[in-house]
Amino acid sequence: MERKLVSIQRIDHLEPIPGADNILKARVMGWDVVVKKGEFTAGDPCVFFEIDSVLPEGREWAEFLRPRGFRVKTARLRGVLSQGLALPTSILPGEVPSHGTDVRDALGVVKYEPPLPDGSGVAGPFPGQVPRTDEIRLQSALGVLEEIRGLDFFVTTKLDGTSATFFRPLEGELVACSRNWAVKRGTNPLWAMAERYRLDTVLPPGFAVQGELCGPGIQKNRLGLTQPDLFIFSVHDTRAGRFLGHAEFIAFCAEHGLRTVPVEHVVTGEAARTFDHGLEHYLKLAQGFYTGTKNRKEGIVVRPLVERLSPTLAGSRLSFKVINNDFLLKDED
Ligand code: ATP
Ligand code: MN
Ligand code: MN
């Protein structure tokens, strides 16, 4: 599910920040965000901009972000973590829209997109049979915590490379895709993976594998790899229209000689039933380093062992990411 980058939300809570006269710490959904004193009282509606909102130039209310290129980023102010931006609804023309309304377009906000990895030419659209890779941020979808409570689940490391989808149609040739496009066969890292793992013959017809392509020259290569590699996080059976559950996913990758993303925890039975599904606990689990490196990890991805659909996520699969706040503060580009 694409998150609502800018929407009408509520200031759930306000508290003073020791030593700071002009700002307060507010809570909006699962986010802590610093606001100007006097702009809100608890319970007020606000316009909430999630991190990676890029504000429009030439609007008075956006000018204060000019020095930071108009992008809303994670910050620490007077020792308080601030994620997102809450502004009064008076920046909107006309009446205040109802809670949850998406006002991204009305305000001319766009999402920050990292520059594309070079040169891999587009061959066509992303195949319609396969869901695109994406993960919602926990703080924007706290309802998933109730949905996962009591279920057996697993936690994988979120790798900081680039999304790769390989789809073998029932008829016709393998398709290799980046986040949004099928990519031309050629000397690019996607097709290098297709060849190394012989995906055109290894994948059963009708199946797609989705993974993170990591290696030298891709993002910061935080795994410290000496050559590119592919780490699978999803297997989709397009005929059945479903993702494989955890056990099938692991077995599928083993059988076909594919690597998976690192599985950090598999939590089942009594341990799953008594697990602390609080936001704070998840934020702790998201901290740490990529195994064998001194590089902070980007975070974790959490899913039930048995696939299920999520009402909170508008009917897409129950799965969410928790980004490491240390990474956001210190390492994010
Ligand atoms: P946002 O929508 O929060 O702004 P985004 O859409 O740019 O962020 P990411 O933060 O990179 O995307 O998170 C989703 C991506 O994470 C997936 O598309 C996938 O490529 C990647 N990813 C890396 N590791 C994993 C993993 N272990 N499980 C699932 N996805 C993963
Ligand atoms: Mn996304
Ligand atoms: Mn990413």
From TrEMBL:
Keywords: Ligase. InterPro entries: RNA_ligase_dom_REL/Rnl2, RNA_ligase_DRB0094. Its EC number is 6.5.1.3. Pfam families: PHA02142, RNA_ligase. GO terms for molecular function: RNA ligase (ATP) activity. Gene3D superfamilies: DNA ligase/mRNA capping enzyme (3.30.470.30). It is an enzyme of class 6 (ligase). It comes from the Bacteria. Residues 153-323 form the RNA ligase domain. This is RNA ligase (ATP).
